[in-house]
Amino acid sequence: MESRKQPLIITDKTQMRNWSRSARSQGKTIALVPTMGYLHQGHLSLVKEAHNHANLIVVSIYVNPGQFSPSEDLSTYPSDFHGDILKLVTIPGGVDVVFHPHNLYDYRTDNENKNYSVDCSNSCKNLEGEGVVSCVEEKGTGHETWVRVERLEKGLCGKSRPVFFRGVATIVTKLFNIVEPDFAVFGKKDYQQWRIIQRMVRDLDFSIRIIGSEVMRETDGLAMSSRNVHLSAEEREKALSINRSLLKAKSCAEKGQRNCRELRNLVIQAIDEAGGKVDYAEIVDQESLEAAEEIKSPVVFCVAAWFGKVRLIDNVEINM
Amino acid sequence: MESRKQPLIITDKTQMRNWSRSARSQGKTIALVPTMGYLHQGHLSLVKEAHNHANLIVVSIYVNPGQFSPSEDLSTYPSDFHGDILKLVTIPGGVDVVFHPHNLYDYRTDNENKNYSVDCSNSCKNLEGEGVVSCVEEKGTGHETWVRVERLEKGLCGKSRPVFFRGVATIVTKLFNIVEPDFAVFGKKDYQQWRIIQRMVRDLDFSIRIIGSEVMRETDGLAMSSRNVHLSAEEREKALSINRSLLKAKSCAEKGQRNCRELRNLVIQAIDEAGGKVDYAEIVDQESLEAAEEIKSPVVFCVAAWFGKVRLIDNVEINM
User: Fold this and answer.
1) Cβ contact (<8 Å) for B203 and A145?
2) Which domain of life is it from (chains A, B) (predicted)?
3) A61, A35 in Cβ contact below 8 A?
């Protein structure tokens, strides 16, 4: 039996950076796969994709409070660190490092921390009089620097989750500066996120190549997501309406239906009839994410919908 | 006669990064001194400070359109690249690289650029319906990622220059990602800028040590600035009121006057009487930059004032 590679688990950011620099000085290339843990086959496919590009693989597991608003599901976000490691070990080639920091928004030195324990993953601080607030906002000398991709962050998921993409862009910047990878792999299931990170890397001159990895699905077509575990059996069945109607819309478009209103109605109606609540169903340009009225160039059909208390997203690219 | 070191002049960002990585792989440390050119003794003192920390010195010379609003003085900002090089050569130890890019917001590939020339330093594009606009904003796939240090950027100079610090933080991030230095030196004359960059580096986990360098002054006390050349002889004389009144306020504070309103009135009145127009005169905490009512801890007295068409800034630290 093949002996499986156990990843090195690093929790300290200085140790993480030193590991990367040492590897780089030996001529190795590094790919980062950022995750919030509770890994499924979708994540594992990102790691497999990473192996196509770099010598060494770092998977980060960190539930980022900066991308949750106080009203969102930070406290119930699922986690299973031990299970995650077991899954990563099964991947051919394995992973070299799992970066699992405790709190990336606590900037006190080790000395200041001695008699102090903080866990911002369990509480959201609300600030009076502040407009856009995430779960790391606090007064005084707390974290206050945010990376914003100002146009791309506004539409789609940005409408109902105003702090989300600023939180994502910021934590990814932090991870890039700590891990200093040559490549980073993002799933195209989070299509807007993938485009935002691509744009951010270009605009801020990061020397990192962003790899987009295709959506992984269950055998019945449901896009894999850590949030799927919260679906009841009944909700899960209803949620199949998303992918099914998206595929139908894609097929209609390919047969000549180029009117986006018609295609959107098809999807909205199907999800509605299944008992889901559509947050948005938009057909947008693949790069600018601007809404299209008619399909004339490559677009992506993006959907977010609620099934019970679970919000799911999915998309299909339509290339004309 | 000692032969003087001629800096290597690099205009291409990939070449710049390759130079830094090659130097780092040989165990050298690099300090970056970001400037907008038209160098004076203040800048040269930053380079001298840089020599105290690193083996190799990179001075960037780039007038950043991203920190100017369309109504500001981008088009008249003084420049003298040849003169700048001559000055840098006189510094003991010299500088190793002058990074002098043409346009850091143009992301087309070399191929796309072949028959195209762009110079965003001569024009500001105004966008209808956008709130905060700098001279690099444009629709479509143009630059749209901004780094914001949300609390520190608001007060002092941020009040009258709403795009300024977002532009500074963003260009410094870009320069950090291109030059990849170990140290970066900023003048404490731009006190708020220095604190913002420090906070940004902490919050985004850049592995760069920020060095603050003391204000350099003409023999009569005027803080050195590239904008001083625009002052008439008469305005220049009047402008001395800034530093003189700041020193008087500091001395009063040291003698026991801790009331900030009294100290501010002293400065406002002095500048007013000299014929200047005060933009702000604030006594703030040295780190949080929050306004103080009474001096109980280390503060900095920051002033911005107009003399004719020239806006000058200056400050003194008051350590209690």
Assistant:
1) yes
2) Eukaryota
3) yes
Best to test chain B binding among A145, A174, A288 (most B CBs inside 10 Å): A145
Q: Chain A closest CA to B238's CA: distance in Å?
A: 38
The Cα A223–Cα B154 span in angstroms is: 42
DSSP per residue, chain B: -PPPPPPEEE--HHHHHHHHHHHHHTT--EEEEEE-SS--HHHHHHHHHHHTT-SEEEEEE---GGG--TTSSTTT----HHHHHHHHHHSTT--SEEE--S-TT----HHHHTT----TTS-----TT-SS--TT--STTS--EEEEETTTTTSTHHHH-TTHHHHHHHHHHHHHHHH--SEEEEETTSHHHHHHHHHHHHHTT---EEEEEPPPB-TTSPBP-GGGGGS-HHHHHHHHHHHHHHHHHHHHHHTT--BHHHHHHHHHHHHHHHT-EEEEEEEEETTT-PBPSB--S-EEEEEEEEETTEEEEEEEEE--
Question: Any idea what DSSP says for residue A228?
Answer: G
pLDDT value at A156 more than 70? yes
Is there a contact between A313 and A190 (Cβ–Cβ < 8 Å)? Answer: yes
Question: What is the ipTM score, two decimals?
Answer: 0.93
Tell me the nearest-neighbour CA distance from A219 into chain B, angstroms.
37
A268-271 contacts, C-beta under 8 A, 24 or more apart = A270/A241, A270/A244, A270/A245, A271/A241, A271/A242, A271/A245, A271/A303, A271/A305
Nearest to B145 among A107, A147, A180 (CB): A147
Residue A13 to residue B206, Cβ atoms within 8 A = no
Query: pLDDT for B261-275, tens place per residue?
Result: 999 999 999 999 999
For residue B149, CA distances in Å to A57, A176, B77, B193 come to 32, 19, 25, 10
**For B146-179, what is each residue's pLDDT tens digit?**
999 999 999 999 999 999 999 999 999 999 999 9
Among all residues of chain A, which has the CA nearest to that of B175? Answer: A205
pLDDT digits (tens, 9 = 90+) for B107-150: 987 555 444 334 444 445 545 455 668 999 877 789 999 999 99
Query: Are the C-beta atoms of residues A310 and A230 closer than 8 Å to each other?
Result: yes
- Distance of residue A138 Cα from the nearest chain B Cα, in angstroms: 11
Determine the Cα–Cα distance for residues A267 and A112; give it in Å rounded to an integer. 54
Cβ contacts of B242-247, under 8 Å, gap ≥ 24: B242/B267, B242/B271, B242/B276, B242/B303, B242/B305, B242/B312, B242/B314, B243/B217, B243/B314, B244/B270, B245/B270, B245/B271, B246/B301, B246/B303, B246/B314, B246/B315, B246/B316, B247/B221, B247/B316
- Which residues in chain A are closer than 8 Å to B151, comparing Cβ atoms? 144
The answer to whether residues A185 and A31 touch, using CB atoms and an 8 Å cutoff, is: yes
Task: Tell me the CA distances in angstroms from A125 to A78, A319, B153, one per residue in order.
Answer: 21, 44, 22
Active-site residue list of A? 43
Residue type, B255: K
The token duo for A214 is: 């295709």
Strands B8-10 and A209-213: unpaired
Residues in A closer than 8 angstroms to B143, CB to CB, are 203
In chain A, what residues touch B99 (CB-CB under 8 Å)?
Answer: none
pTM: 0.94
